[in-house]
Amino acid sequence: MPGPLLPGAYLLHLTTQQAIFRVEGLKKVFRSGQSDLVLFDNLSFQIAQGEMVALVGESGAGKSTLLHILGALDRASAGDVYCAHLRLSSLSENDAADFRNREVGFVWQFHYLLPEFTALENVAMPLLLRGSSWGEVEGAATQWLREVGLGERVHHRSGELSGGEQQRVALARALITKPKFLLADEPTGDLDNRTADAVFALISRLHRDYQLTSLIATHNLFFARRCDRILRLNRGQIEEVHSETLPQ
Question: What per-residue confidence (pLDDT) applies to 15?
Answer without folding.
Answer: 45
